[in-house]
Design goal:
Largest sheet: 8 strands, antiparallel, barrel
CATH class of the largest domain: Alpha Beta
Distance between the termini: 21 Å
CATH topology of the largest domain: Alpha-Beta Plaits
Strand order of the largest sheet: 2-4-3-11-8-10-9-5
Structural class: alpha+beta
Radius of gyration: 20 Å
Number of domains: 2
CATH architecture of the largest domain: 2-Layer Sandwich
């Protein structure tokens, strides 16, 4: 297990070259990972049987890690929080213990092993300050001696984007729409709502596998397929489900994920909106998170190398020099856990 953990943290992977058709398949799945095989086949010019086998090969080759529904957990009363750690004196045994603790805890919905300002970043759900304190106490009681430094932030709003960086010049000329960002957003601006146990179960299954069949969901919920389909449509209409996307291994496609933690000054709502609109148009932008904490916004970019990341950040900093006070950077080695719904499997 220690070896497996080290491999996940190394970020080492053999790069896979994508052909034209697989690029188009991934681009469509990034916009809607629940799209039917028939609709996907029509969009990319292949039969649904060929599309089925190509998707299976993308999963088998470790390019697609998961298919996920993006759930607005804020509407269920869950607040997204992050802890950032600079670690020290971790033996392989302790590293494995920490990894296993975080992977098994249902409160933790995302893990990022890093290089740079932080060594480890985790995101976890809590409904109030007491739950935040209980989680932090439990974690620190077991691992505080291995933590040199830590920070905490609250995520106010999450803006998730479809990956567009594998659009070639040829594809951009033929299909210009592929460069347009598809935004899946959720956060504090949406009113809380109540859902029943059946809807909760449906959301958990879709968060764990967005491509699960209606017939399978019907068996799991003991409802008719038509009822399940209706409930999903209602959850989409209510913006409980804000989209469907893929979890990809960027390393397998020759990319690294870098995050900028940016602090603002003299910020107005108009300037912040202009900043977001500018950043989201960059094909490398994976997500933008508005935060309360040591910095004001986090942006994740999928880049070829650190040099490309700095060119992107220099451009953004130059464009918005009046509001950017500074930023810190991390390079992700791996992200072994990600979920958009408590209890998802």
């Amino acid at each position: 297990m220690a070896k497996a953990t080290q491999e996940m943290e190394s970020g080492e992977a053999t790069e896979v070259k994508l052909d034209f058709k697989n690029r188009r398949i991934l681009l469509e799945l990034e916009k809607d990972s629940r799209i039917s095989l028939s609709d996907l086949g029509r969009k990319v010019g292949l039969s649904k049987e060929v599309v089925f086998h190509r998707i299976n090969n993308l999963v088998k080759n470790g390019i697609i890690l998961r298919f996920q529904a993006v759930i607005s957990t804020y509407r269920l009363g869950y607040q997204a929080n992050k802890l950032y750690f600079k670690l020290q004196n971790l033996s392989p045994t302790v590293r494995t213990q920490l990894h296993d603790f975080l992977m098994k805890d249902d409160r933790v919905f995302w893990i990022g092993y890093c290089q740079g300002r932080w060594d480890l970043i985790i995101a976890f759900w809590a409904k109030n300050s007491q739950e935040i304190g209980e989680f932090e106490d439990e974690l620190l009681n077991r691992f505080s001696m291995y933590i040199q430094e830590r920070e905490f932030s609250i995520s106010r709003r999450s803006l998730q984007y479809n990956r567009r960086w594998f659009v070639t010049k040829e594809m951009a000329a033929q299909f210009p729409g592929y460069l347009e960002p598809v935004e899946m957003t959720f956060g504090e601006d949406l009113e809380p709502i109540k859902i029943d146990d059946v809807d909760t179960k449906i959301l958990r299954h879709l968060a764990g596998n967005a491509r699960i069949r209606i017939s399978e969901l019907a068996e799991l919920t003991k409802l008719s397929p038509s009822t399940v389909g209706y409930r999903i449509k209602q959850l989409e209409k209510k913006k409980m489900i804000v989209g469907y996307k893929c979890g990809l291994d960027a390393h397998r496609l020759g990319r690294q994920t870098c995050k900028a933690c940016i602090s603002f000054r003299n910020l107005t709502k108009k300037k912040r909106n202009a900043f977001i609109e500018y950043c989201k148009l960059k094909p490398e932008t994976q997500n933008i998170i508005l935060t309360v904490g040591p910095w004001d916004v986090e942006i994740a970019f999928d880049v070829r190398n650190f040099e490309e990341y700095y060119l992107i950040m220099n451009d953004i900093q130059s464009k918005f020099s009046d509001i950017i006070k500074g930023y810190e950077s991390v390079l992700y080695a791996s992200e072994p856990k990600q979920s958009f719904m408590p209890g998802a499997r």
